[in-house]
From TrEMBL, chains A, B, C, D:
PROSITE patterns: PHOSPHOFRUCTOKINASE (PS00433). GO terms for biological process: canonical glycolysis; fructose 1,6-bisphosphate metabolic process; fructose 6-phosphate metabolic process. Catalyzes the phosphorylation of D-fructose 6-phosphate to fructose 1,6-bisphosphate by ATP, the first committing step of glycolysis. Mg(2+) binds at D103. Its cofactor is Mg(2+). The keyword Transferase applies. The lineage of its organism: Bacteria, Bacillati, Bacillota, Bacilli, Lactobacillales. It is found in: Cytoplasm. This is ATP-dependent 6-phosphofructokinase. One of its GO terms (molecular function) is metal ion binding.
Length: 319, 319, 319, 319
């Protein structure tokens, strides 16, 4: 193996650049060449490649987004498209590829491996919804951004004795909502993976106001319900003032936190070492704070398990 | 004059606490007593008063929201309600009142003055929409919060070559949009006070993408159009990917900036000095960086003039 | 057990308030009463106690510092002082105590337990230097604050092609330096637990500048050497411009991160549950992301093990 | 005039990149070409020039530091060096130059103008110490950074009932100290331009502690005294615990605030327009919120006047 490629795929996430930097620097320090592939699998098939030096990734560890750009590219599921990708890689002398992205991107990584190009997948998504890992690159920054916003919203909620229903990202996964909810001192956390009772939440808010609390915060995972609808439901049972708030895309960007930079650096470094050992078709994760790998195939049957004990913890905080 | 009251009214804004602190400390250092009136004019009429000491406002200069709470209270327009307010003030020996709030709150301050209770109005609103002042308390923090959010959104816009239409607050006033638009390097700024041409904006975005720009940001004042509608209009003329984003209530909260803390402190200090000079019925402002006063009456006929040269400035940045 | 006490001891750390809140809310939700003990063990002996309600800890999860204040109190090592403490607790009907603080505070917690007052210790220090735990309350926020400062310093380092030697906190422990060093893309990380070679670091910086890098950052743990001395040593071998920078006490304060709020909440909740099970003399930690306990006695012989693999990881980033 | 040059000189300041961007975009939109001159006057003499396009300054408005790098270059005072600079400019067809920097850089700008190359100076320094302007590029961001740090320091000061003497930048100018002092609710502000009485400050702190205040903050301009010395002086008169803290170089970097981005954009835009009118030898400023110009010559005799009323204002806050 002399030359490896790296690409980012799916939604961008803070820390992707730290991972690109780690891959680049580690590979070069082990005598490999690195090519950046722009626009994910679309760029791979189109041959949008350019060499990455150690200097090219200077001043990138602190940047949100991805310097390699990203794109969704469902065409990669087709056999003939995969073959085109492999041809492009061979033409450029690239022996192996590291793919950073959400669950969709693992299919591409597996396809490349099956065509003889060893590929390693790194979990790059703010949603923390990948099986067999407790952590995905960008998750911590997204939580921090959401919490900062809620800290601000709480000021105005308190000044006016209002309830805010704050929709946070995460697609079908409630991890951002749970962690941000606990960190924000939310009155309730609503996620798609667990049942919830809007009436009970409204009653609990009424009790809080009666005891003198000056505001209410509901952290709502986007996969559970729309913020507007939830607010309307809530107002059926409560006589308080309530507003809906959708934090949206700001959660995807911004300077990555220490946690995301360090973890992305560890993962990028590890991925190169796996390639150096001749491995491919693997997904890297963190389990109980340790780097781990699983066959990508296993991920397709697997299911991400959130830390649902956070829901009980939060209930102890709001009784 | 021995005892003054202070209240916050209308939407809360970062820096209101700095103004409350400045009023309290200045008054006490000039031998006056201070009473905090909670929940704005509603609390004034209900007699929700309590003394404020210099120590009570410790650790508040850095807090968003208002420690006196706020409320909208249209009933204050009624003569009999105003009389009740005056009775409450007399009952508590309060000779004068400082009111911090948006344009609605000036009516209450004028009514009190007319009933013999000298009152001074301070412009407390993030919207910067008050006549005869270049600045309102909270405006700078709201701009900073909006710009921070757009800096994050730009990361994801760039990673995906997307256009974001970002709705910022300001009601019918475009000041937040203009200042944040320039600071964010927006491709276009849309405000209700000036005409705009969606087609022209779409064409300009297309030219930018053609020249290699990797993203587009439109900063849209909430008073101009909804973000969703603007995005839909835009997509009639452009073939790019576009998303709508509403920053909403987080702009109202958060730790105030240096500018808001210093200006609020100056204004609160000045308001007490005006009362000590026996003045009432005045609105305090900043004009060309200097503290100024106007009869509150003049404000009702006046019109806030934004710095519309910012629109031309921004065009020079995007041609 | 009907009534428990809580105190913070030693240096303050962001997240202590989240832990106090969690202890208070959990205890109350399980039918216990909670007393806040101010000024650590000094206040315990002086009887500076007051009841804490669920409402008292509203609006505290987001505050740095400790609402219970802290103090160093070496007198607590004396038997007669310990007896006085126990008398105070008995007088107030307090059956058990939760102590949040650095390693010094564990001695006090153990002494109380030996005198029949079950006590649980929570690791509250930014230094991350407690045995048998991978994490201490405040560590993440301190790292984030240090990294933010270094991100700013890097701007000016780059503009002037300078090297900055940045001293970060941690006493004899290099954990902050290692994590912040990796996250900041430092050219070198210097900690007291491992040997380092100033000449080699200087040579490596010269090579970087020769390859076109525009700045250098050394992250130096305070326990290793003073920043000034290190800078002077460095300049013996390098002809570049170098400055020393000490981040100091700002690392101890500030709004806690998501990580610190969530972990402090988990730990505070867990500590109450341990007391409810009749346990005492235990130190709570996180090991491999799981809550764990150890006899406090074991901590005195134990040694905190840092994640020294971060040093090798960083070398792969700078070769 | 067909082609202009731009350089940054002296210490870097946040917002310099916004000014570079504004100069570049404005010039191009008016049909001019722009050359970036790297490393200030040193690069000017060495001919370190490269063309700047509108795209080159994309993604720079939000960056601290200066993408053109900076350097101190006292040699520029020599006539023969100035002639060399002029030769380089003529060789590259550059007709006029915009210089962004501190007071030293105005000498270079004037020298160029005298040699027939119209030059305009923009005040780029965090210190706010330039005559005939109320504002310099970077001043607002530096104040914000210092205030943020002090907000964090206050947490630990309060937890331990300590006094912190915090040294902020500004060289011989007290503007940062005054504005940050008011914004931080400092107990005292010490600047080199006005007398101060350490004993009186100590007495006032003692009175505050006696009244129940839990901390003390002194904001000290670096030009007044060293923080360590001030702390030692203070402890001669007070029996409290006090620490010295030097914020140092982090104040020079970081993402610029809204204020700095907007003002730098206005100034860069205005400088190009002055050149288009055939003007040179001018320094741009903001006076009472309006763009203004003065002959650079006048600056050498002028003296920056700070807003010293802030000292009295702060006294009203601490009596």
């Amino acid at each position: 193996m002399k030359r490896i490629g790296i690409l980012t795929s799916g939604g961008d996430a803070p820390g992707m650049n730290a991972a690109i930097r780690a891959v680049t620097r580690t590979a070069i320090s082990h005598g490999l060449e690195v090519f950046g592939i722009r626009y994910g699998f679309a760029g791979l098939v189109a041959g949008d490649f350019s060499p990455l030096t150690a200097e090219d990734v200077d001043h990138t560890i602190n940047l949100g987004g991805t310097i390699l750009y990203s794109a969704r590219y469902p065409e990669m599921a087709q056999e003939e498209v995969q073959q085109k990708a492999v041809e492009q890689l061979k033409k450029h002398g690239i022996d192996a590829v590291i793919v950073i992205g959400g669950d969709g991107s693992y299919h591409g990584a597996l396809a490349l491996t099956r065509h003889g190009i060893n590929s390693i997948g790194l979990p790059g998504t703010i949603d923390n919804d990948i099986p067999y890992t407790d952590y995905t690159i960008g998750y911590d920054t997204a939580c921090e951004t959401a919490m900062d916003a809620i800290d601000k919203i709480r000021d105005t909620a308190s000044s006016h004795h209002r309830v805010f229903v704050v929709n946070v990202m995460g697609r079908e996964c409630g991890d951002i909502a749970m962690r941000v909810g606990v960190a924000s001192g939310a009155d309730a956390i609503v996620i798609p993976e667990r049942p919830y009772d809007v009436k009970e939440i409204a009653e609990s808010l009424k009790r809080s106001f009666a005891k003198g609390k000056d505001h209410g915060i509901i952290v709502l995972a986007e996969g559970a319900m729309s913020a507007d609808k939830f607010k309307d439901e809530l107002l059926k049972y409560g006589d308080f003032d309530a507003r809906a708030n959708v934090l949206a895309h700001m959660q995807r960007g911004g300077r990555p936190t220490v946690e995301d930079r360090v973890n992305a650096t560890k993962m990028g470094n590890y991925a190169v070492k796996l390639l150096l050992e001749g491995k491919g078709g693997l997904a890297v994760g963190f389990e109980n704070n340790e780097l781990s790998t699983h066959d990508i195939l296993d991920l397709f049957d697997g299911k991400h398990e959130g830390d649902y004990a956070l829901l009980d913890l939060n209930k102890d905080m709001t009784k």
